[in-house]
Amino acid sequence: MSAPEAHKAPETRPAERRVDLGQYGLAAFMIVIGIYTVFDAARLEVGFADPVGPRAFPYLIGTGLVLVGALLVVATARGAQPEPEEGEDVDLSSSADWLTVLKLVAVLLFTVATVNLLGWAISGGLLFAGAAWSLGSRTLVRDVIVGLVLAIGSWYAFYVGLGIPLTPGVLDGIL
Hints:
Blueprint: H1 3-6, H2 21-42, H3 56-77, H4 98-118, H5 120-134, H6 140-162
Helix pairs in contact: 2-3, 4-5, 5-6
């Protein structure tokens, strides 16, 4: 081997790009759901007195899903890779907190079971307080008060602002 050949840098091949099938799967799922949403919105019956109609938001959401799905396909094809979570408050070695998940599911099922009887104002307030309790809050009285204020406020926002009556339940005639 001659002297100039001994000092040559070793040849490096470009690293093979890994195809992330998960990103393509997510993109395909988003595109399919978006197309179905637009298709389903097209079949809605439209009243003559409503200037916006019930199709506006499903069209917007469906189109957005298709657009974001297509952008994800392009980004994935260009080699974009998601980065793993590196937050300092996240312990990736610990297991999921299934007790908290079960508490949240129980609170949600309680809300679904009681919303017709108790009404949105009470059930929504209990939903907020129960979710806060499940996630570790220890200020029950404050959580109930905040939940009731938010639930009653959203009840009036739907009823007065949008003309959509939510069930008043036991508070029928009071709200």
